[in-house]
Amino acid sequence: MFRLFAITLFFASPVLAESYVSDAFGILPATAISPERSNWAGLRDSEASSLTQPEDVDAVLIFIGPKALVAGKDVGHAVSLSFDRHGNLVQDTEARFSMETNGILNTKVRDGIADALFSPNPTAGTFAGGASVGDIQSPRALYRVTADLESAALAFGETPVLRAESFTTLASSELADQYGNPVEDGVGTTMILSHETGQATLLSAPVREAKAEAVLLGRDIESDGSASIHIASVQGSGAFEYQGLTIGAPPELAVWEIEEIGAVGLRLGPFTTTSGHLLTDGSLVEVGIAAEDGTELQINGWLQDGYFETVVQRPAESKNLTVAFKTVVGSETRVVAIEPHAPKPIRGAE
Fold this sequence. Notes:
By secondary structure, the chain is an all-beta fold. Helix content is 0%, strand content 47%. The protein has no helices and 28 strands. The chain is elongated and about 115 Å long.
C-alpha cells in the first residue's frame, strides 16, 4: 500500500525593518509619533538624531511662598515656570519678578524655572507679585507680611475688675510688634488669673481689633489676684481686683410637710443684695440639713428669681430641722420647725 504524504512548504517573505525613535519619554515606532509628541522639545534619536528646541514662551506661572512672612524675619521665595505653546519648558531667557514690597527683581530662566529671594519691608499687609518672561505675564499671586508676635508688647489696658456673678471683659492694651504692626484679628492668646487660694483660671483670649479679649463670669472667686497674658513665647503680667456682693435683708426660710410622698419642701429667699438687685439667677446655693435623729443631707442647687426651692425625704420623727445654707453673699445656719402646710406660692416676674 502506498501512502501519500502531502508536504506543505512555507516560504517566509522578508519583513521590512521598522525604524524606532527614542526621546526623553521612551522608545516607539517612528510611525507612531503623534503630531503633538513631535513638537516635544529635547534630543530625539533615530536614523538621524535631532534636537528639538522649545518655541517662544506662551505661558508663565508663579508661586510665592511662604504665604505668610513674619515682619523683619522671614525671606520670601518667588518661583516661576515658563512654557511654550506645546508645554515645553522654556530655556535660557530673561525673566523679571514684580514684587509690591521689593520692586523689580531680574533673573534668568533655566530649564523653565526662574526664582528670586526677597526680604519685604517690615510692614504688615497683603501684597501682590507677578512674573514676566518676554511679553508674557503670569497671573497675580498674593503673599502676606504678618506682625512679629515675639516682639509684641503685652499688658492689660486697665486693671481688670471682676464683679461677683457678673460678666467682665478682660482686655489687653493694643498689641503691636517692634515695627508698629498691629497683631492680626484671630491670633490666639492666653490669660491666666492666679487666685490667692492657689487656684488658677485659664482663659482663651483671641485678638480682636488689635486687643486680646476674654469674657469671664465672676463666680467661685473670693479675692484679688495676679494676671498674666501670653502670646507666642512672650508674657505680660498684671493684677486683677475682685468686688463681691453684700447681702441685703436676710432671706426667709420655710420648711413644710408633703405627707402624700413622705417628704418635706424647703424654700430659701428672696436673696437680696446691697447693690439694689436680687442675687443673680444661676448663683450656687449649698444647703445642709440635719434632723433631730442625726440624719444629714447635703443639697446643691441654683437660684431662680432670687429663690431656691427643693424637696427632700422627710427625716423620721423630726419636728425641727437645722438648715445651713451658703451662697456667694455669705453663709448662715438656722433651726426651723416643719410646718404642716406649704407657704403661699411665689409670684415671680411674668
